[in-house]
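Sample 1 of the test manifest.
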Amino acid sequence: MNTSGVLGRVWRWIKWPIIVLAVGYVALVGWNITYRLGQASTAEAVAQIHAQKLTLADVEGKNLPPVPDQAENDATVAGIDKNNNGIRDDVELAIFKKYPNSAKIRAAELQYAMTEQMFLTRVFDTGTWKAVAEENGRAHTCIIDSGANRKEVETLTFNTDLRTIAKNNAFEFTTTVGSAGGIPCDVSL
Amino acid sequence: MRRVFVILFIFFLPLLAQAACSANGYTVVFTNGIFNTKAKAYEDKQALQDKLGNNFNGQPVNYIVGYNERHIAGAGDLVEAVLPQLDQYDLGTILRQMHEQVQTRKLIVVGHSQGAMYANRIYDYLWQHAEPKEAMAIYGVATPETILQDKGKYINYEGDNVIYNHSNQIGGVVPPPFNVSIQDWWDDPNAKGDNVGHGFITAYLDNFADRITSEIKSEMFVLRPAYSSEAGGTDCFIPPDDTFGHKAAAVGLVVTDFYADSVVGIAKEGYGQAKVALRAGGTALAAVGNFFGTIASVFSPKSNTSDADSERALNDTGIALLNALNLTSLDMQTADQLQRDTQKKKNNNRMGGAAVLALVPEEPQPQGEVLGSTTEAVDTPTATTTPFPTAPAPMPAENVHYNAPSFGGAAAVAQEEEAPPAPPEEPAPTAAELFAASPPVISYSNWRGEAGVGVGTSACQMVTRIVDIAWSAVPNAAYYELWVTGMVPAYVADFLYATTTATTFPDFSFVNATPSGITPATIWVVARDAAGNSATTSSLISSALADQQGPAVVSFSPAIQATGVAVGSPVVLTYDEPLDPTTVSDQAFFLYQLIVMFPPSRVAVPVTVSLSQDGTAVTITPEQTLEYATGYSLASSCAMSDLVGNHPPFGISIFSNLVDPYFTTVDAPSSPPPPQEM
């Protein structure tokens, strides 16, 4: 038996294990790259969530949106946010209508509403849920400090079956989470 | 390029995220039980935070909610409930996740239902890997398992059907005795409830919030970290190792949960078969039917089954399997009842595992508002000029004088009562001496008490005292320490309540009253210089100076156990002190007609309650004529108080049982004989 014959026989035995290992390795590398990119994508979204803050102009109503068409607003989970401040227009206007004379309560409820809306629009994995929950925890602290009512904000935000379902879907990513650090209220009054 | 930065950020995040583990503030770990959705677990945390608030003892409180992953679409949680040793994976996960969040040395674990079992394990782990037991506590709500901590408190309500009927039959776990009687709940006209009396909010927080928060606070109140400085490093505890076994389990559960969640969406047929099988008789048959139905449904096209039905199927599967294995007597009907509680909200029916919440203090201490000018009787401030203990230590007795050390920690030296006058050539007093000579004069206002929960035999027992404190500023003082001694529980000797730079402290709360009596409490304010190692003076406020006694009834009309009472008679109670008219209402007293039958029961009689001009006499007038020859009992609410907020320790609930009447009405008059025909 010549050398090439032996090598050929050996190769025939080890060929498939090597191919399987190689394919597995490539698959793992591919998965790892995808995972890392996914992490980067999550980190970017998390950074955006933490960066979104209520402003004094929001509290003062300097850029109040027009009254939205309720049917159009309720047709989607996100609803309408014409002034692009992260607070759904119908919720924002309802808070202003209820508390025209209390900027402190308005500020707390608007901040809370912003984070509640994030549960509907920003959560796509555990990392983003955690970031939103951290901001929501901070806003909740502000709500308590300000004597505001979180329940009425929640009722306003999750006002349709579609949004309730979306909220529950977002909470499928629940994990251990604490309140975001720093001063509870974005706008201290 | 931006992604590169983001990836670098992720890589270095653990280094950036480290913060000091603080002696200031509290961490509470809350663990949710099964039969809860993830959203519900989060809501439970929100509700508890609403009740407990953001600050306690002048220290910030922040909340963390966590969750141990639901496994096998909820059925796994039932297995965990039966075999707690199988929950090590989730416990490890919770502890690792907590490790990122907990930033305080003082920590309390609050567990609800199955979560109380987690609470025990978390506590057991933490005290061995972090602070001593004195820095940690447990509080159990609807706990199926005895709380491990020596003095750990809990609330188990007799009307909790899950605990009452089943917990002692699951896996040999024996719950602690009920400590809230169903009588208390019945007595409360504002009582709320759910189908099974087990929900964290619907059964417990809605009805017993005062008691729960009071007891949690009383546990938080006595927590002491091993040391008070911030020099303890960044880690509040050592997390469990992320072992290969844990990672392997994680991978396995990812696969298992993926398939289980897929099953959940298409399990209607299985649920139906299980129900049919169950009704036909035999829980084992139900388990088999449910199991095969569920398996079969995996291969069926995705149906329009709602999550509610499908998850009921999975949970029914779990219950049925447990029944089949004789691990529990929880039947399908009761399981349905349990689930109805969680199905009240649409799409809110998923069962879950545990949740964690924590309080993390990173906020600055509240400075407090300026108090009102009302200053009630105050002890003459007693200058004490000795270093005050930096750690809990025996407090000096009242009016004992100590010598002043100079700044820098000089040892105290005995001082004569009358020191010789300083010679004229003596140099001007040093800053330290001036400091020592300026005691913070303490005053207080708005003394008030808060009763326990509800009414009845266990009501009004624990009274939390609340008072706003203020003191005069001491020049050069960097900060002040508030100490308290003599509070309940008795094993708490001296306690560093708070440290503040302000000269006011609103809502200073402590417990010093129980049904067995009042324990004199003393509050001390100690000023310290910037170095913090040299105390100067202390003042005190004696609790004996404030009215702490609740109002007591000194006379009853009708008299106790009176008989032959006219059916139109009102009840008049005379108290030994005026009552706060805002706390006296038609809902503050309960008049019951006793129904003598087996079992005995009673019916509330609507009453109108009025208070005399001087506030000492309460007149309770039935809004309907009382029955003849009938026993009546009476109870009062904890809400009623005297003018400074003291509640009657027991109310007058001794008359609230179902058998012994407070008074008995007169027999019905005999009807006149018919007129005789002439």
